[in-house]
Design brief:
The chain has 12 helices and 8 strands. By secondary structure, the protein is of the alpha/beta class.
Length: 301
């Protein structure tokens, strides 16, 4: 059995669509408690316009408050070059700042316009430019292809379109490329087929999978990605998440749900299920409601 790397995205993707605003201190507690539970690679902020995504308005303050943990990688999401330069500024004055930037390419024109004010093709080229800039500045960089399995506005996304995007993005040599089911419409067979195709086309670049559980297929899709050779999976504490620009795009797969499934399949994750459940209970108290993840409600076994 292979070990799996889980990227904790709760502090960014998990919170960005929540109506309850988490303070900077609350976000830092979420991040630090996730680290205490074993998370070592975390998406901690998004450098977007605060009027468009109010939950991410304190991105710089969150980055400034992070512990200088040498075992952790802190990721900042950037959608354009302006966002990239904001992320880069967190490193000025000898500060640690972000360790890695995550760029986003979009597999449909309509969603690319609503999410980033770009066309799909422009999002690919901008992502490649961000990767090149990051390399020049000594930063790690990766790219996520959003709505890889379906768009809320245009419907089905052809696998050939995603494959062409992967090949183009690979020219910039990012750390990895992620395929994201942003609105939770993919099925396990579709996931297996698409990851097999992209890994065959670009065998030298690692792939990551990002699934939303909008229609209950997220965990099954994560297993399908694992079986297709993907070793890096995104998850969000409590199953929180969603996109302000994608109607009905609900939460990511819950970190504790993913860890439970993998560990019951004898796959090591390096994460403490007990500590994850404790953290999710705290998040539920902050939100004033239960979180979507199943294990946070049913408990471990």
């Amino acid at each position: 059995m292979r070990n799996i790397e889980i990227v904790e995205v709760g502090a960014r993707d998990g919170l960005q669509n929540e109506k309850t605003l988490f303070s900077t201190e609350d976000k830092l507690k979420l991040i630090n408690d996730a680290i205490a539970a074993g998370a070592r690679r975390l998406e901690v902020a998004s450098f977007v316009h605060p009027k468009r995504v109010p939950q991410m308005a304190d991105a710089e303050a969150v980055i400034a408050g992070l512990d200088d943990n040498p075992d952790c990688t802190y990721i900042g999401l950037v959608l354009n070059k302006r966002g990239y330069f904001r992320a880069l500024e967190t490193k000025e004055g000898g500060r640690r700042g972000v360790d890695e930037v995550g760029a986003v390419a979009i597999a449909s024109d309509t969603f690319a316009d609503k999410n980033q004010g770009q066309t799909s093709s422009e999002s690919v080229e901008i992502s490649k430019d961000i990767v090149k800039l990051a390399k020049q500045d000594g930063l790690s960089a990766q790219v996520t292809i959003s709505v890889s399995f379906g768009c809320p506005f245009e419907g089905a996304v052809e696998a050939d379109k995603v494959l062409d995007m992967v090949k183009s993005i690979a020219e910039a040599e990012p750390r990895e490329i992620a395929l994201a089911d942003t609105i939770g419409v993919g099925g396990p067979g579709q996931v297996t087929d698409l990851f097999n195709r992209v890994r065959e086309a670009v065998p030298h670049i690692p792939f990551r999978a990002h699934f939303h559980n909008t229609r209950g297929t997220g965990i099954a899709n994560a297993w399908a990605a694992y079986q297709a050779g993907v070793n890096i999976l995104d998850a969000s504490i409590g199953g929180l998440g969603g996109c302000p620009f994608a109607p009905k795009a609900t939460g990511n797969i819950g970190t504790e749900d993913l860890v439970f499934m993998l560990e019951r399949s004898s796959i090591e994750t390096g994460l403490s299920l007990e500590k994850l459940i404790t953290l999710t209970k705290w998040v539920s108290e902050k939100l004033g409601r239960p979180t979507p993840s199943a294990v946070s409600q049913a408990g471990a076994f």
